UniProtKB/TrEMBL annotation:
Organism: Citrus sinensis
Occurrences of domain NmrA-like (ranges): 85-285
CDD domains the record matches: SDR_a5
InterPro entries according to UniProt: HCF244-like (IPR044256), NAD(P)-bd_dom_sf (IPR036291), NmrA-like (IPR008030)
Chain intervals with Polar residues compositional bias: 1-12
Localization, UniProt: Plastid
Residue segments, region Disordered: 1-27
Domain of life: Eukaryota
Example of a GO cellular component annotation carried by this entry: photosystem II
Protein name in UniProt: NmrA-like domain-containing protein
BP-aspect Gene Ontology terms: photosynthesis
Keywords attached to this entry: Photosynthesis, Photosystem II, Plastid
Length: 307
């Protein structure tokens, strides 16, 4: 999908409307944001016992399109926060469920933010997590899920049938703003490897913009760039081969260092325990990078044995 076909409110790292270290980068769209000059919460605050008197406003615009504005919420005093309390956003996804499983195994108090759905995420409750319903596309549903939370781990992404900006930009902006307003102590954001080098790819462009917004928000954070999920190869290659269906790919020599989501989860918590990497951008990758053709050749012998 070409960048120009995206909705007019899609942000890019192009012409920022305020001084910014990346201002020299040009893009076909633009985004601006106004951050409060003063912190929403005292830097020494370790609870929700502060009242937010400042607000952040984000406005996205492109070529005269209407701008969307999301206001941070003003929070009243709340309860103390345990360092072991985490909120996993996107907890039912390929990565999110592994984050939940690992966190529970390591003794964390896990709360899972999931959208209201006909089929409840009972497996998360069975594991021992608390499930709360909210929708990133409805910012008013977010604040209550953050009460009493120390760390947010953001694994969420939009559904294929949704506009790409709905969750991956507007929803993430709302989540980051609420996290800032409520004094979340750490925010983990999963991005894409080399997203800053491919502004022509809509999702990568949005990921890079979200990285920049998170960095500018002042939230303590860790950004983790991922290459690809090993689990994704099952549906993309293994199942079609076993069912004797077409496998779609490319002859390009582009290589992807796929990684098991269980390993991603394990390394995420290693990173969380290391205060020296606060504010850093990390890249997680597998031990070897594969082309599409190499993956298909690896799958073929197994499909012949099982057919």
């Amino acid at each position: 999908m070409a960048l120009r076909s995206l909705p007019t409110q899609l942000p890019t790292r192009g012409n920022l409307h305020q001084p910014h270290p990346h201002h020299h980068m040009k893009g076909s769209l633009s985004w601006c944001h106004t951050l409060t000059p003063l912190p929403l919460l005292s830097p020494s605050a370790n609870s929700l016992g502060k009242v937010c008197t400042q607000q952040m406003v984000v406005k996205c615009s492109a070529g005269g399109g209407t701008s969307g504005t999301v206001q941070a919420v003003n929070m009243s005093p709340g309860t103390p926060v345990r360092p072991t309390s985490i909120l996993v956003v996107g907890a039912t996804g390929t990565l999110g469920r592994q984050i939940v499983r690992r966190a529970l195994d390591e003794g964390y108090d896990v709360r899972c933010l999931v959208r209201p759905r006909p089929a409840p995420a009972d497996f998360l409750r069975d594991w021992g997590a608390t499930v709360v319903n909210a929708d990133l596309s409805k910012p008013e549903t977010i604040p209550a899920t953050l009460v009493g939370v120390h760390t947010v781990i953001d694994c969420a992404t939009g559904r294929p049938e949704e506009p790409i900006k709905k969750v991956d930009w507007e929803g993430k902006v709302a989540l980051i703003q609420c996290a800032k307003a409520m004094g979340i102590q750490k925010y983990v954001f999963y991005s894409i490897h080399n997203c800053d080098k491919h502004p022509e790819v809509p999702l990568m462009e949005i990921k890079y913009c979200t990285e920049q917004f998170l960095q500018d928000s002042g939230l303590p954070h860790v950004i983790i760039r991922l290459c690809g999920f090993m689990q994704g190869l099952i549906g993309q290659y293994a199942v079609p081969i076993l069912e004797e269906k077409s496998v779609w790919g490319t002859d390009a020599l582009t290589r992807i260092a796929y990684m098991d989501t269980q390993d991603i989860a394990r390394l995420t918590f290693v990173a969380l325990r290391n205060e020296k990497i606060n504010g850093r951008t990390l890249t997680f990758s597998g031990p070897r990078a594969w082309t599409t053709q190499e993956v298909k050749m690896q799958m073929l012998p197994w499909s012949l044995c099982l057919s």
